[in-house]
Amino acid sequence: MKKREIKAKRPWKRIRPSGYISHGRFSSIEEPLMPSDNMEFETVTQADFMREYYPTGHAINDPAFYPDIYREEEETVYDGNGDDTGKKIRRIYKELVPRYAFAFQQIITIKQLVHLCGNDIQFELGEARPTDEKQEKFLSFREGWINKGMEVEFYKLASSVKKTGDGALVFYLSDSVLGCKSLSYMNGDTLYPHYDSITGELTLFARSYYDYDDEGNTTSEWLEVWDKKYMYRYKKGVGKGRTVYDVVIGIFGLDGYVQVGEKKPHGFQRVPVAYKRDEEGACWSPSQGSIDGYEMSFSQMAHNNQAFGEPILILQSEGDSVDIQHDLNGTIKTLSMGTDDKASYLSSQSASESYMKQIDTLYKMIYEQSFSVIPPELKAGDLPAAALKILYSPAYEKAMIDAAEYQDVLKEMVKLFAFGYGVETENTIAFGNLNMRYYIEPYVHINNSAVVADLASAVQNGFMSVQTAAEKLETIYTTNAEYDRILKENKENREAALADEIAKKKATLLASAKNNSSTSGKQNIKPS
Questions:
Q1: Around 41, how many Cα atoms within 13 Å sit in the side-chain half-sphere?
Q2: How far apart (Å, rounded) are the C-alpha atoms in residues 196 and 190?
Q3: CB of 38 within 8 A of CB of 19?
Q4: Which of 210, 232, 337, 434 could form a disulfide with 225 if both were Cys (CB 3.0 to 4.6 A apart)?
Q5: Residue 296 is inside which H or E element, if any?
Q6: Do 267 and 173 meet the contact criterion of CB atoms below 8 Å apart?
């Protein structure tokens, strides 16, 4: 593929209301034809997601979206001749309106990530009676998954998708040691996946990023490409780093990329990339319109309070008998006036009830549209698990949907990790033959004591094994291979009990032997 074809990617978009229910009419007598309805979209870039994520980049801070106020005043400038004649000059003043941006996007992102990544990835052996060797390899796989930080890498992937719409994990082998690197637009990477049109398998993956000088100017662009066997690196001069060669080849219509070094085999049997894209874009996209409306309404309310929030001083006087003295901050310090003069304050205006209702409704809908839950105030103690699930049901339902949507990228992660870690530990075939089930368990706030009590009751009643209960408690209290530790402790206890029993029997036999010897000795003594 040409480099221009590699750097091709579907844009994110938001549909426009153009053409909504405006497609003409038809008669029931006539044969109705399928109407032509072309949808229109607004293109949204990943840079737009970044602007929405950080409050400093919100639209409320843009004067084109929320303009400042310009006021025109007429002022008379005297010529200094001693008369009252002067020239009138019009001056335009700009009044800066208050602007308030809130980090709703960051709050929504954290809430969704907690419910999606709060629990570790759940691994189970799919065989009913696995052999001891497979149990050992399964425990080795899980230890490697934790030691290599795959839980953190999965969080980085999900965080990138939630914030920028896509993310990727690249696996590599360095001297037969497995490594993993996360790629995200947050870190300056633009990702370009390419799939097989029939199987949907990832056939080519590329990422581009830039080098910068000490002044922040771009000097060169890098393009790294992975296929099923090799990894390639290309470089092109841009900005101040553009050379005469780059200009000349650009005239002839060439892309200007030069391969750096030779292609390197990456050592995997497939493209070593786990890529995830959310077609909806950032996780707060359903609430973005409400967020913009909330910031606009709040800023307008703040402007109103700034203009009318403070009480207004009213003076009623004849002539110039009132003398007002101010301090350095402009506050009235002293007020001198005549006996017939009057001074009073005009009470400040308060925001109307309907205006506050608008802001409160927007605040509520921002979280509801993104399936986030504002923590309720609890006046009682610990709540049961069912009550907590009901309180956090919108967030839990969203996490359940995310768990299903992230299952494909998790499958790619497990396959690439099993092969790479198998190469590192020389267990490629053993890990490949493991019949494992793996899935994402959405996190919900629970009472750990209730979970332990339920598992203990299940073990005591005989419909759950101690091994399964120990595995379920690994993320709370126990550690990996807890069941093996339990068996080891039970074996040591049995051996200690057997040793005590043997020692007691030996002591009993010795005591019996002594008694028998003393009795027989007394019977053999003859009286003198």
A1: 9
A2: 20
A3: yes
A4: 232
A5: helix 288-308
A6: yes
Output the 3-class SS for 225-271. EECCCEEEEEEEECHHHCCHHHHHHHHCCCCCCEECCCCEECCCCCC
Lowest mean pLDDT among 91-100, 221-230, 346-355, 363-372: 346-355
Looking up tokens 């899935």 gives: 439
Q: How do beta strands 86-95 and 264-265 pair?
A: unpaired
Asked if 194 and 207 touch (Cβ cutoff 8 Å), the reply is no
Tokens 């995200």 locate to 184
Which residue matches tokens 């402007």?
303
pLDDT higher for 203 or 475? 203
The structure tokens listed for 26 are 């038809």
Q: Secondary structure of 88-132 in the HEC alphabet?
A: EEEEEEEECCCCCCCCHHHHHHHHHHHHHHCCCCEEEECCCCCCH
**SS3 for 382?**
coil
**Per-chain mean pLDDT for the chain:** 84
Q: What are the start-end ranges of the E strands in 321-408?
A: 323-326, 332-336, 342-346
8 A C-beta contact, residue 220 and residue 237: yes
Between strands 264-265 and 230-237, the pairing is antiparallel
Q: Which residues contact 33 (CB under 8 A, 6 or more apart)?
A: 26
CB crowding 22-31: b at 16 or more within 10 Å, else e: eeeeeeeeee
pLDDT-derived band at 460, boundaries 50, 70, 90: confident
Cβ-proximal residues to 212 (8 Å cutoff; 6+ apart), any chain: 218, 219
3-class state of residue 319 by DSSP:
coil
Tell me how far apart the alpha carbons of residues 389 and 391 are, in angstroms, rounded to a whole number.
5
- What is the maximal distance between C-alpha atoms in the chain? 164
Residue 74 β-bridge partners: 90
Please list the residues that pair with 94 across neighbouring strands: 70
Separation of alpha carbons 133 and 41, rounded Å: 56
Tokens representing 291?
């967020």
Backbone angles phi, psi at 52, to 5 degrees: -75, -30
| Beta-bridge partners for 207 | 191, 224
> Sheet of 273-277: strands edge to edge?
177-183, 166-174, 273-277
DSSP assignment, residue 285?
G
> How many C-beta atoms lie closer than 10 Å to residue 83's C-beta?
8
Residue 284 has pLDDT above 90, yes or no: yes
Give domain limits for the chain.
1-20+45-75+91-307+355-444, 447-511
DSSP string, 130-158: --HHHHHHHHHHHHHHHHTTHHHHHHHHH
Token pair 């020239």 in the structure block, residue: 87
| Sign of the dihedral defined by the CA atoms of residues 15, 21, 24, 27, in that order | positive
What is the C-alpha to C-alpha distance for residues 513 and 506, in angstroms, rounded to an integer? 10
How is residue 197 written in tokens?
A: 């049109």
Please answer whether residues 44 and 14 qualify as being in contact, where contact means their C-beta atoms are separated by less than 8 angstroms: yes
